Amino acid sequence: MNHNASTVALVNRLKFKHLALLVALDDARNVHQAAEAINVAQPSASRMLGDIEEAFGFLLFERNARGMQPTPLGVVTLAYARRALAELTRFAEDLDVKRKGGHGQLTVGAIMGAAPDLLAMAVSALKTERPLLNIRILGETSDQVVQLLHRREIDLALGRLTSPLQHNDFNFEMLAREPLLLVVRSAHPLAGCTSVTLRELIDWPWVAQPISSPARVLFEEELARAGLATPVNLTECASIFATLQLLENYNAVAMLPESVVRDHVRGKLLVALPVEIGKSLPGFGILTRKGEPLAEPAEHFVDLLRGVSRSLAREEAHIPAPLPAH
Fold it and tell me: From the record, what ranges are coiled-coil (predicted)?
């Protein structure tokens, strides 16, 4: 069989149920659990996997005492299956919205820590203009939204690149920088201090983002520059909401974006400590996949993000908005 004929044969044999099984196996690494996830019997799932591997002509998984581990070619195939299934799911959802009289769908990944004002204002403007547009917002940290973008589970992201080589896969347009603050609850013994150093804070409990996040990397760099080790009493938490809840319930310290804690500080639930930190954190902005044009709703949302970003920058600098042209 020549190369073209074998490609056609592979395409004809693969079904989306096969892709769903591969994604479920990648998540569970167990045939029984994967079968349950896609609602088929285990023997059927085993036969489907055998059919898929026969169609590809190589093993996707190695079976051993530890379970199922993807082979090198399996890793590539599983990544494709996940992307293809995500594309089909989004297409079906978009079609369903249009069938019901809606106007499409937009799925955005966003770092909820650094961009709540910008995101909320842009989404509000978009929903005012297009109330029937279905909008989904996913993610919390930059590493999460970049992964979602890579898997094609979102149209675009509001975040930061998280590794030096990601510029090869994604376009990045910086929108703003975000001041970071060290905060504690108002009942914390350090809340009334007019002067405190990072060294004095190390022995207190801390809540920090996972090590894969840019903010955590910056925090560790700040500690290294000060000759300090990572706090021993540290809770890792990717959720901004959960971090705020933890801060309000015990004497922990956390490094959070100013826009996130602004209302908590004004309401005297939290206190910002007099420590300068995080100046070198790179700005956040719009992330899109290279070589893939955005659909019209996504393009329009990007324009709104740019406009809101400029407006917020003018407010921060106390610069009046330009007068409309006559």
Answer: none
Q: How does strand 270-272 pair with strand 61-64?
A: unpaired
Distance CA 79, CA 288 (A): 18
210-223 CB burial, b ≥16 within 10 A, e <16: eebbbbbebbeebb
Are 178 and 257 in contact by the 8 Å Cβ rule? The answer is yes
For the entire predicted model, the pTM comes to: 0.62
Taking the C-alpha atoms of residue 79 and residue 83, their distance in angstroms, rounded to an integer, is 6
Q: At what angle do helices 258-266 and 240-249 cross, to 10 degrees?
A: 40
List the CATH code of the domain at 180-272. Answer: 3.40.190.290
Contact 272, 183 (CB under 8 A): yes
Give domain limits for the chain. Answer: 3-81, 102-177+283-316, 180-272
**206-244 pLDDT per residue, tens:** 999 998 888 888 899 999 999 999 999 999 998 888 999
